Hints:
Low-confidence stretches: 19-29, 255-262, 730-740
CATH topology of one domain: Heat Shock Protein 90
Radius of gyration: 55 Å
CATH superfamily of one domain: Histidine kinase-like ATPase, C-terminal domain
Helix content: 40-55%
Mean pLDDT: 80
CATH class of one domain: Alpha Beta
Number of helices: 28
Structural class: alpha/beta
Largest sheet: 7 strands, mixed
Distance between the termini: 184 Å
Strand content: 15-25%
Amino acid sequence: MLPLPVKRMHQIWILTFLFCLLLFSSAFAEPVIVKVSLSKNPPLVFTADNGKPSGIFIDIIEHIADEEGWTIQYVQGTWKECLGRLERGEIDILMSVAYTKERDLIFDFTSEPVFNNWGRVYAYPGSKIESIVDLEGKKVAGVRGNILTRKFVELLDSFDIESEVIEVDDYIDVFRVTQAGEVTAGLVNRVNGLKFESAYEVEKTSIIYSPIELFFATTKGRNAEIRAAIDKNMKLLKQDHGSVYYRSLDRWFGKYEPFKFPDWLKWVIGSLAGFSLLLSGMIVFSRFQVRKRTSELLSSNKELETEITERKRVENELKKHRDHLEQLVDERTGEISKTNKKLIKEMKERDEAEKALLESEAKYRTLFELSADAIMLARADGEILDVNLAMPRITGYSKKEIKELGEVKIIAPEVLEDTINDRTSQVEERGWFNVETLWVGKDGSRIPVSVLGKTMEISGDTLFEVIGRDITQRKKAEKEKQNLEEQVRQSQKMEAVGQLAGGVAHDFNNLLTAILGYSDFLVTDPGLDKVQKKYIGEIKKAAERAAALTHQLLAFSRKQMLEPKVLNINSLINDIQKMLLRLIGEDIYLTSKLDPEIGMIKADPGQIEQVVVNLGVNARDAMPNGGKLKLETKNVYIDEENAKDHADLTPGRYVMFAVSDTGHGMDKDTIKQIFDPFFTTREKGKGTGLGLSTVYGIVRQSEGQIFVDSDLKKGTVFRVYFPRVDKVEKDTEDVFEESKSLKGNETILLVEDEEMVRNLIYESLENFGYNVKKAENGKKAINYCKKNNEMPIHLLITDVIMPDMSGKELVERLDGEHLGLPVLYISGYTGDAIGKHGVLEEGVNFLQKPFTPQVLAKKVREVLDLKSV
Length: 869
């Protein structure tokens, strides 16, 4: 049986053992093992150089594990591998994952976000990447399976930008391939950008995109208790600004804090201290017992020696624990010192990044405000959030007024529905829109604009970013182009009819020359009775009307022969007013307002008379029940601005002649056709439709312009503009008086390819006493001259256009042998065709077909008498 002191000592040791057993019992409970992903995304999640998991998410999950009694088992891998493991249920928690609708289908997310992040584009040095459009056709690196990579691809698609996205394992690889020039640009989140950008030779661009929130995630339908525990602890951590959450943010991004012993370290030191105190008490108690009971100790020397040996062992163990704790503290202090230096560097880099961001925002705000195009940010319901300076400049409203009005009232009501429908359909089809619409100016005016825009999501709110360009000048130019095209079509139409008229004019004129000539012969034939002469007279009248119709066709096609003179249009109007009064009738009141200082114009008097008469008759037809007809002349000056509103009028001085009526007027469709050949608003059979066409042709051939304004039920005004001339040509007195007799006995060589006309001219001139030698072409005329070179030729009459040799060529061939031979050219062709052969030059004698024998004889006598002077 043991002595009492020894027995008590054993009891004390048993109690101490039981106390320690109870104290540490929780440490031996069966742990909850939680498998957590460990990817490479510093400083959010990564493996430190010492092989220890580190980062903000690591600090948070390990704190929660301590609170919940979990044992963390990290499973390392790339980001894509981690995503796959969570989807297959091989791990329990995925850290630092962004929420998307697609991921929500395969993962469950915690409710509390841990961190906000966004993407930034870094570029290869010197690549000059300033905006997303600069990435067209370039290679861009992004992390495989990363949400920021996918968001950037969607951003490229929304702008129809073609870029090749190269996927790598992590952000370090993104920086590496960008620095090496394997890609033009790389996609990095803002955290890794701040941490690693200084370690690589890359350029930080101003392209920032896709703000996101980062969460913890678990496999779909599993680990609800883990998510609940994380959300509970995250709420508590966010409420306590001294919690591990805020200390971790400050540690990796923010300010430096002095080192604090971790709670677990305090607990260990306290436990060891208590244990040491307990042992010390036991030692003191033992010594007390030794001194008190020396005799008992002597008897139990063997047990005491054992006790002393045990005490030394415990003291040695305690010393080892103290040394180990001191070593831990020294190592931790060293780590903190290194971390402090790193944090100071990161804080400096973050300040520089924030400064660069502010500068970038200021730069783009300046670009926003100074843009020549209006830029507007609006909600889907039309509320305007912001506009730049161009918007008030275009509309006349202030920024405040524009925001108060809203987009719906800025768009003109007559196009509002179509604009919204077009915009909606385009956005649904391709994600952006480009429409033309009308904005309402402050003065109520309609401003045509081309609007380009797209939708964007900001904090769950759908916004429209709109760029509007004022296209007023473009629309005006399009209208002017449309007017010019209409005038070109009108001109082409007139040209086509003119070509037709010119083509038949020659044959018509030859036929009419023969008809008129032989009619004159028959009328003077004494063998005809009165009835026969009457019939011949009707034939002649019909031929004359046909000749007049041919002249009209040539007039509106601007191909007739003109004899322009400098004239006073007032005098011409006064001369024909009496005739005009007879034409318009008594129920129409004729007035005139003629400028007494009117300038001179150069035109064919006969043709201008036809213009006045045709416009007067047209006005009469527009007033079947009577009305007022007004003739007006005026000197006008067309400046650069007015010339824009009057097509084909160049700036300068003009004489304006106007004819206005109070008739029924015309609509726009009628005005478009008013100068078309054969177009008429009169009943069938009551007009040829050539009156205004003839006017148009004469005016244009006289280098003038004609314009028409008309209002239904109010009347019509025709305004004709002729170039004003300063020099007044004095009418030269005829040097020769008209011969009392048209007869003569001179020898005339006649060259005409049309047999009927050739015979008529031959007989006509023979009847007037001339000796006429005829040839059907130039070659025979030359042969005749060679055979009869001794016989004088007093006059050559030749057609202008003939097969093989023209009249001009014939004259040049004969000029060597018959120098100074008088020539009279005749032709049934139009003026432009004859002009190409050089016979319309000043001083050249010309007679236009058709003509009568009397007119021919008069012209022949005139040319011969001119030669004899």
